[in-house]
Amino acid sequence: MAPRPGVVTPDYWDEACKHLAKRDRVMKKLIPQFGEARLSNKGDAFTTLARSITGQQISVKAAQSVWERFVALMGGPAHKVAPAVVLGHDVPSLRTAGLSVRKAEYLRDLAQHFEAGQVHVRQWAQMDDEAIIEELVAIRGIGRWTAEMFLIFHLMRPNVLPLDDIGLLKGISVNYFSGEPVSRAEAREVGDAWAPYRSVATWYLWRSLDPLPVDY
């Protein structure tokens, strides 16, 4: 399956799949189920972060619904929401897309940071994962989870293990522990075996729970 125009996929994906299938019995079964589907990056940092904020603590399906209403409110296109357009809407206006008050405030704060040049977009490629996380969590409403989603979906860093992610923990529970709840320590132990491609394994576990592609 060729990537859609304007969409970038990781050059390490095939190598990662071979590595994971060799190292992990669950991945060996999961990976072939999804054919040529893979992580993709649409190339816009602000839109990726905004979409991550809208998806916090809700299901993939609910997040998609809210995002579609938000994009419609912004006047499209879905792949590139402009910070200035977000700032043109107050919190009550943003809430009509199905956003909570808090998420609406977070989106406006994110937009203000981008408009004011307070994030170092051009330096991110040279920064390590933890340095980028530290910069992003300084923005109101962006916690470690959202920063890790950014590392995976925008920068396509290969070795992120988002232990605060509900879907990852559920995926490990279902696929490795017969549905029994898992602790962060247990999840970390499972994830350590996926290095240096923990992002890729995480993506496949998300897909195992929901056929809708995880997309930010």
Q: How would you summarize this macromolecular structure in one to three sentences?
A:
By secondary structure, the chain is mainly α. 55% of the residues lie in helices and 0% in strands. The protein folds into 2 domains: 75 residues, Endonuclease Iii, domain 2 (Orthogonal Bundle); 109 residues, Hypothetical protein, domain 2 (Endonuclease III, domain 1).
Q: What portion of residues is helical?
A: 40-55%
| Average of per-residue pLDDT values | 90
The CATH homologous superfamily of the largest domain: Hypothetical protein, domain 2
CATH topology of the largest domain: Endonuclease III, domain 1
Portion in beta strands: under 5%
Largest sheet, strands/sense/barrel: none
GO biological process, one term: base-excision repair, AP site formation
GO molecular function, one term: DNA-7-methylguanine glycosylase activity
EC number: 3.2.2.21
Keywords: DNA damage, DNA repair
Write up this protein.
This is DNA-3-methyladenine glycosylase II. This protein has helices at 13-23, 25-30, 45-54, 60-74, 83-87, 91-95, 101-115, 129-137, 144-153, 166-176, 184-192, 198-209. The protein has 216 residues and is mostly helical. It has two domains: 13-37 and 160-209, Endonuclease Iii, domain 2; 45-153, Hypothetical protein, domain 2 (Endonuclease III, domain 1, Orthogonal Bundle). The protein is globular, with a radius of gyration of 17 Å. It starts with 12 loop residues before the first helix and ends in a 7-residue tail after the last helix.
